Predict the 3D structure of the following.
Amino acid sequence: MEKKVNIGLVQLTCGREPEANVEKTVAAIYKAAGQGAKIVCLQELFRSLYFCDVEAYENFSLAEKIPGPSTEVFSKLAAELGIVIIASLFEKRAEGIYHNTTAVLDADGSYLGKYRKMHIPDDPGFYEKFYFTPGDLGYKVFSTRYGKLGILICWDQWYPEAARITSLMGADILFYPTAIGWHESQDPATNKEQYEAWQTIQRSHSVANGVPVVSVNRTGKEGELQFWGGSFVTNAFGKVIFQAPHLEETVEVVAVSLTQSDSYRTHWPFLRDRRIDSYDPLLKRYLDEN
């Protein structure tokens, strides 16, 4: 018998006031739960504007302890609604040590732990290395009331190794809270190419590992960036079963099968045929003569 779980995706615009962003997000969570969501995934760093578009010391004041004030809010909400909440936050670990971190709250309100973003970009408009220390908790899977959830974050999307390891740890679904967009100077063809590459690489993680993927991006214009929205869900073989619009706020609930993985992995036995004895070269930065 097929087993499904309803996933809520919250794709919003953000403003300057963290409290207002949290209130807006809480309202969206209520809406998703009202539509039957059992797991709700929020976009990356939803409490603020995407501050990594500049290198500014004052932005460190946006960080907080985890667990801390935000996890307390979402823990109470998770318990009230009987849902799992995946919340992306700016973590202050210690003086001068900060992480891009996602906390997971179970359906009884319990704090299950956190994943710290492993791959940190540093590109024009995405100066994350200025703010974030690379994650040191390794890859994580969280056992919740509604399934085992693998959590990765944004730039992790481009790395098949991260998706593979998290899947091998038993994840039923891979979740990617995200903040990615187009620069205002780009032409439509470039925008289309970038979005399609972004979606394709994540669909490939679904195909290669036989698990559904849920990717939740923000939307809205912030500085020189138009965040491209386009949040989406795949089945366990990379088929897109939902895609949000690019320029609109969206709260959507999508039924995702937790039992299709067995069928796809049986008929397409990629995990069976892995040659783990041959993968040592992956531990090298580049395979040159040196």
Summary: The longest helix spans residues 188-209. The longest strand covers residues 84-94.
